Amino acid sequence: MTVIGLVLVTGLALLLVYETRQVLTWMVIAAFFATALYPAVNWVEHRAAWCRRWLATLLVFLAFLAVLAGVITLFVVPLAHEAVRLADQLPGVANDVQRGRGPIGSLVEQYHIRQYIADHREQLQGYARGLGAPTLAFLRGAATTVAGVVTIFVLAYLMVLEAPKLVDGFLALFPERRAERIRRVGADCARSVTGYITGNLLISVICGLATYAVLFFTGVPYAGLIAAFVAIADLIPLVGATLGAVVAVGAAFLHSTTAGIVVLVFFVVYQQVENHLLQPIILARTVALNPLAVLVAILVAVELAGILGALLAIPVAGMIQTIARDVWNERQGRLKSHPTVGPQETPADVAEPPEARPGGNQPPVRA
After folding, report:
1. Which of 35, 188, 236, 242 is deepest in the core (most CB within 10 A)?
2. Radius of gyration of the chain (CA)
3. Would you give the DSSP letter of residue 340?
4. What is the domain range of residue 197?
């Protein structure tokens, strides 16, 4: 009966995790944001004696929202201009496509796309009529995303606000020495997460601004839209920058061969600068991971959680490395329960005395 009860409880727990996976995902994201903002709240609370915990938390979150709004505005304003420009140019682009002129029109003529559309008109119309359900799914997903963002913000705020009580209550369950060790390891993990989040965001902003400057000076249309996509894609470790570069270089070659070559050279140079200068300077002191460990962590995380896993793979791997290093160091500092002698790990209590061994009075080496 005990075994059956444990199996049932485990099954119910797994079912509960599966059914609430979306909420749990929001909680994980909120925990990472709370970990990143927690040191800032502590700094404000300690620097300003008149500032209570709730006020320090509110001020930090308002500052975070202001910075986030500024970054979004930095990208949204160019996107709005590009959207208006695209709407104005759509009739001309459609006319060029019909007449086989311009970069898109020449591609249509070269690959006989217009003839393909004419031959498969009914099939394409059927696909168009079936877009109603995906549109509704998209709107439903957008509403869920908005609700998720609000929920993550509220959860992160409450986590930061109540963090001291929660941490003190949890550490009170352990002896003083063990509690101090847990607090130290937790602080190291928090620094790893904070450093990665802020560093990765800074690198993405630099990548987006540099891409926008190059596309703007080469005259590539929709530079703001492409630069925003490159900046967002750059948040994904390893493959994100390459994915954004492919899109930007393709758009530049559609504009002109010269622009395509310039943008291609820019991304080749920038990739080297980011990999060998920006990332070591910004991330080396916070998340010092082996490249192989980074790749394995990303592959496993993508398989388990998709894009979210890719974004959180490196900080999670950094936390695992910090905990494993602490456990290893603590283990290395312990005496063995049974002292041994020599490279063969011979128990010291059954080893021959020094006088009986060749070499005489050499004392045994105890591990």
Report:
1. 35
2. 29
3. E
4. 177-286
Residue 151 belongs to some domain of the structure: yes
- Are 80 and 148 members of one domain? yes
Using an 8 Å Cβ cutoff, are 307 and 240 in contact? no
| Per-residue model confidence as pLDDT tens digits over 300-340 | 877 777 767 777 777 888 788 888 888 887 777 666 666 66
pLDDT above 70 as % of the chain: 67
pTM over 0.85: no
Residues 208 and 125 in one domain: no
Shared-domain flag, residues 143 and 247: no
94-133 as b/e: b if 16+ CB within 10 A? eebbeeeeeeebeebeeeeeeeeeeeeeeeeeeeeeeeee
Domain tally, the chain: 2
Distance (Å, whole) CA 235 – CA 201: 7
Give Cα separations from 363 to 352, 354, 366 (angstroms): 11, 6, 9
226/236 Cα distance (integer angstroms)? 16
User: Are 148 and 28 members of one domain?
Assistant: yes
Contacts 24+ apart (CB under 8 A), 274-282: 274/203, 274/207, 274/241, 278/203, 278/206, 279/199, 279/203, 282/199, 282/202, 282/203
Same domain as 168, residue 218:
no
Q: Which of 286, 303, 320 is the C-terminal boundary of a domain? A: 286
- Three-class SS state of 246: helix
- Alpha carbons within 13 A on the beta-carbon side of 6: 2
Neighbour tally for 345: CB within 10 Å: 10
Q: How far apart are CA 238 and CA 317, in angstroms?
A: 15
Residue with tokens 């929660």: 166
Alpha-carbon gap, residue 234 to 239, rounded angstroms: 8
- The Cα-based distances of 143 to 156, 306, 314 in angstroms read 20, 20, 29
In this structure, the answer to whether residues 155 and 207 fall within a common structural domain is: no
Q: Is the pLDDT of residue 113 over 70?
A: no
Residues 33 and 63 both lie in one domain: yes
